[in-house]
Amino acid sequence: MKSVITVLATLATSFTISMSAHANVDVQLDHAPINPTDAASLQAGARTFVNNCLNCHSAGLVRYNQLKGIGLTEAQIKENLLFTGQKVGDMMTVSASPRDQREWFGNAPPDLSVEARVRGVDWLYTYMRRFYRDPSTATGWNNTVFPNVAMPHVLWSLQGMSEARVEVEKGEGHERKTIVIEAPTGGSMTTAQYDRTIADLVNFMGWMAEPHAIERRNLGFLVLIALSILILLTYLLKAAYWKDIH
Ligand code: HEC
Fold it and tell me: Residue 244 C-alpha to ligand 1 middle, in angstroms?
C-alpha cells in the first residue's frame, strides 16, 4: 500500500513539473472569446488558418473535405481554400520537409492539428497577439508568451508592429524584468478587428483539435435513449417468461 502511495506521489510531482516546464513563462493569459457553435466564426478562422499558417505548419490529422463539418460546401472549399494541385480529400500537409524547415527557422514548425488541446485556447489567443520587434533575434521578432520563439509574426501586416521596452524593477537583492509592449502601429486592422480575427482563428483551431465534440455529445444522448428502450424490452420479456410460473 505504502509503495502505491509513493508511486502516485512521484507521478503527481513529475506531472506538475512537466506542466510548469510546458508553460514556458509565467504570463497572464487573456480569455479567448470564442463560440464553437458559431459557423461564421469557424469559417473565418479556417480561411485565416489555411492562408497564413499552412505555408509552414501542417495539420496532418485533418482533411480539407472535413471542413464540411463547419458548414462549408465542397465548392467553397475548392474555390477558397485549396491551392492548385490539391484535392479536397487531401490532408492539410506542407510540401517543405521538417528537416529543411529546421534549417530555415532553427526549429521545425510543429503540426497544429491538436495544438488547441496541447496549449489551450487562451494560450493561443494570447500568443498570437503578443509579438513584438526584437532586433536581437534571427527573425527580428519576439513574443512575451513564448520567449525567443523561432516563428516570425506572420500576421504583422494586419496587427501592425509593436516595439517593446524592458522595465527593470530593483528590489532588495533581486531584480524583476517586465517586457512592456507598446501599441502596434502600421497594421491594416484596428485592435478590435485583429482580436476578432484571432478569436475566430483560435475557435477554428479548437474545432480542428476536436472536430466531433458536438456530434459526440448528440450521439451520447441517442445511446442513452436506445439503452432505456432496451431495458424496458428486457423487463417485458422477463415478465412474459415468468407469467406462467407464478
Ligand atoms: C514562416 C513560417 C511560419 C508560419 C507562416 C507560421 N508559423 Fe507558427 N511556428 C513557426 C515555427 C518555426 C515555430 C516553432 C517555434 C519554436 O519552437 O521556437 C512555430 C510555432 C508555432 C506555435 C507554437 C507551437 C508550440 O506549441 O510549441 C504556434 C501555436 C503556432 N506556431 C501557430 C501558428 C499559427 C496559428 C500560424 C498562422 C497564423 C502560424 N503559426 C504560422 C513558423 C511559422
Answer: 73
Segment 136-188, tens digit of pLDDT? 999 999 999 999 999 999 999 999 999 998 888 888 888 888 888 999 999 99
Q: pLDDT by residue (tens digit) across 189-227? A: 999 999 999 999 999 999 999 988 777 878 888 999 999
The closest residue, in CA terms, to atom 17 on ligand 1 is 107
pLDDT surpassing 90 at residue 48: yes
Question: Ligand 1: which atom is nearest the Cα of residue 106?
Answer: 12
Kindly list the protein residues whose Cβ atom lies closer than 6 A to any atom of ligand 1: 52-53, 55-57, 105, 107, 109-110, 112, 115, 118-119, 124, 127, 149-152, 154-155
Nearest-CA residue for atom 42 of ligand 1? 151
Complete DSSP assignment for the chain: -HHHHHHHHHHHHHHHHHHHHHT-S--PPPPP---TT-HHHHHHHHHHHHHHTTTT--EEEEEGGGGGGGT--HHHIIIIIPPTT--TTSEE--SS-HHHHHHHHSSPPPP-TTHHHHH-HHHHHHHTT-EEE-TTSSSSEEESSSTT-S---TTHHHH-B--EEEEEEE-SS-EEEEEEEPPPBS-SS-HHHHHHHHHHHHHHHHHHHSTTHHHHHHHHHHHHHHHHHHHHHHHHHHHHHHTTT-
